[in-house]
Amino acid sequence: MHVPDGFINAPVSAVAGVVAAGAVAVGLRGARRELDDRTAPLAGLVAAFIFAVQMLNFPVAAGTSGHLLGGALAAILVGPYTGVLCIAVVLLMQGILFADGGLTALGVNITVMGVVTTVVAYALFRGLTRVLPRTRRSTTVAAFVAALVSVPAAAVAFTAVYGIGGTTDVPLGKVLTAMVGVHVLIGIGEAAITALTVGAVIAVRPDLVHGARGLATPLKLRVDGALVDLPAAPAAASSPAPVAARSTRKVWAAGLAAALVLAGFVSFYASANPDGLEKVAADKGIDEKVQEHGAAGSPLADYGVKDVENARISGGLAGVIGVGATVAVGSGVFWAVRRRRTPEAPGLRTTESV
């Protein structure tokens, strides 16, 4: 759903830019409460993973494809404030390096794809987790529903922006019907990817999922037919580190490897059909005044490396470069805004982080 230059007029694009800048500012402040030395590098990894998965367009209808938006996934994994920043970093990298999503429409894209999806998904996710049992399965189901709803919500948001500042005269009802219709289908794919990813991380390290905090329950012991909490074992020098102190290096390395494989290899097999917005724009005439991207001459434009003739190698290299750039920029931003650890008393053992 990357909005190109020319779909929305300059005044509305400027207002959207202000809204997006405000959302990023709020995100930077809020991320300080969500991130620390241990989780900041993981947030950079989440941004890189979303970048990689967005390269994997999947078919949803005749001649139409979709891709992950990522707002729900980011919000559930690292928190809503950090989630907005993750999507903003991804969109910035895509716009500058790959000419994907207009530069003048960057504010529109951050608002629609980042703010709307993250806010809607996390609000729905938290509401569901409050009424559902606190189990891994319920958390995964809540993630599925939240992601599913977030995509058509973004389609409605784009339609509203188009209704205010669209550069073509297309009946708003037709745009809304077409956008919501196709993005409900895309939302199913988004929901599946989000639920699978969240479920996989919860199965391995539930302590690293922001939306699953407090999910762990005390061990139970059956005594005289009744279940009672198992008393905590006394701390010992040789006992394993507590969950909060466990290293995240293995998770980070595995996540980065997965992102590199997806962007560098699997992306070659992605659907070549236009995504939901592109298809609707072409069918309804929204793209009549589309403008050439300001970074169209970029060496990585259209997710290919300039002068590399082999399409597989060109696309794979572009994907790997994109993952590297996104994880570097994202990790730098999140490391800078993280909550600093307070100095520990002499003799106390520090926890290990990435």
Automatic annotation (TrEMBL):
Its main location: membrane. InterPro entries: CbiM/NikMN, PDGLE_dom. Residues 249-339 form the PDGLE domain. The keyword Transmembrane applies. The keyword Cell wall biogenesis/degradation does not apply. It holds the Pfam family CbiM. It is found in: Cell membrane. It is a multi-pass membrane protein. The chain crosses the membrane at residues 7-28, 40-60, 72-97, 103-125, 141-164, 184-204, 251-270, 313-337. Keywords: Cell membrane, Membrane, Transmembrane, Transmembrane helix, Transport. This is Energy-coupling factor ABC transporter permease.
